[in-house]
Amino acid sequence: MPPIHVTTWSDAATPAARAILVHGTMTWGTECFAEQRPLAQWFRLQVPDRRGFGDSPDTGQSDWEADAEDIAALLDGGPAHLVGHSYGGVVAMAAATRRPAAVRSLTLIEPSALRVAESVPVVAASLAANRAAFSTDSPTMRQTKPEDYLRSGEAFGLPVPEFTERRLRATRTAMAERPCWEAEIPLRPLADATYPKTVVTGDWQSANPAYRAAVGDALLATSVFIADGIGARHHPVPGTDHFPHRDRADVVNGLLRAIWS
Predict the structure, then answer these.
(1) Tell me: the pLDDT tens digits for 29-83?
(2) Alpha-carbon distance 43 to 189, whole Å?
(3) Count of domains for the chain
(4) Which of 156, 244, 165 is nearest to 198 (CA)?
(5) Taking the CB of residue 43, how many other CB atoms lie within 10 A of it?
(6) 37 lies in a domain?
(7) Is the Cβ–Cβ distance between 42 and 14 less than 8 Å?
(8) Does any domain span residue 1?
(9) Backbone phi, psi, residue 192, to 5°
(10) Average of pLDDT values for 90-113?
């Protein structure tokens, strides 16, 4: 077993299949995928906390490659459907290239692998902005408090969450993590895989305009690029932005149940 905490949800006497759900940044497994809990009526869900998040141990620096090794170790336990959101989408892509024979399906929810789609102008512009604003070596990042980092979402119309110790710890880990948008994930191995592949996104139509300009347009372009590159179905979810699985769980859960069945 990898050195991480894994929550298992399983309410079926005989689960139809196993699924591993990999969370994004500034959150943890059971929070990120709380709305997917009802799927445990039919499936065995394993919801890991990446290193430095949730109930997993602290880490010197959160790193998508180390996370991918942890998820690959979970896949060694037998074939499973694999889901990843945002940073976790990058982790899921990397884990799938390490254990292709153990992946029954791959579902990426707004994967943040921007480097993969850097040839797209809107993605290149977003990468340049990210590199300037979020360098962990910059004096601004070193001096920023987690509380202030969480408040920064107000500029994009995002609510400020409650400053619980778990939330602040997740934020501290996220502020120092290796940027997932710089990950160079080869698409060819994923394209060659024969299991079902799906990329889920928000449609971003109702998002705050500043939020869409700063984040949404690049994530959408990246998601479409990855879907095309690996031969995946692109499924935009109406009325949602970066968390379609949370904001329209009825749609995403129906999609996941169909894929896993």
Answers:
(1) 999 999 999 999 999 999 999 999 999 999 999 999 999 999 999 999 999 999 9
(2) 27
(3) 1
(4) 244
(5) 23
(6) yes
(7) no
(8) no
(9) -75, -20
(10) 98
pLDDT for 134: 80
Helix (H, G, I), strand (E, B) or coil at 8: strand
DSSP 3-state assignment of 236?
Answer: strand
| Residue 14 phi, psi (nearest 5) | -135, 90
Per-residue pLDDT at 139 exceeds 60: no
Instruction: List the structure tokens of 145.
Output: 């408090």
Nearest to residue 231, comparing CAs of 181, 188, 183?
A: 188
Residues in a beta bridge with 7: 47
Q: Are 43 and 82 in contact (CB under 8 A)?
A: no
Q: Enumerate residues 6+ apart whose C-beta is below 8 A from 121.
A: none
Q: Cα separation of 188 and 192, whole Å?
A: 6
Dihedral of the alpha carbons of 107, 121, 187, 67, in degrees to the nearest 10: -60
Work out the end-to-end distance of the chain between its first and last CA atoms, rounded to an integer number of angstroms.
27
User: Where does the pLDDT of residue 143 fall: very low under 50, low under 70, confident under 90, or very high at 90 and above?
Assistant: confident
Residue 93: give the domain boundaries.
6-260
| Burial of 236 per CB tally in 10 Å (0-12, 13-18, 19+) | middle
pLDDT digits (tens, 9 = 90+) for 206-261: 999 999 999 999 999 999 999 999 999 999 999 999 999 999 999 999 999 999 99
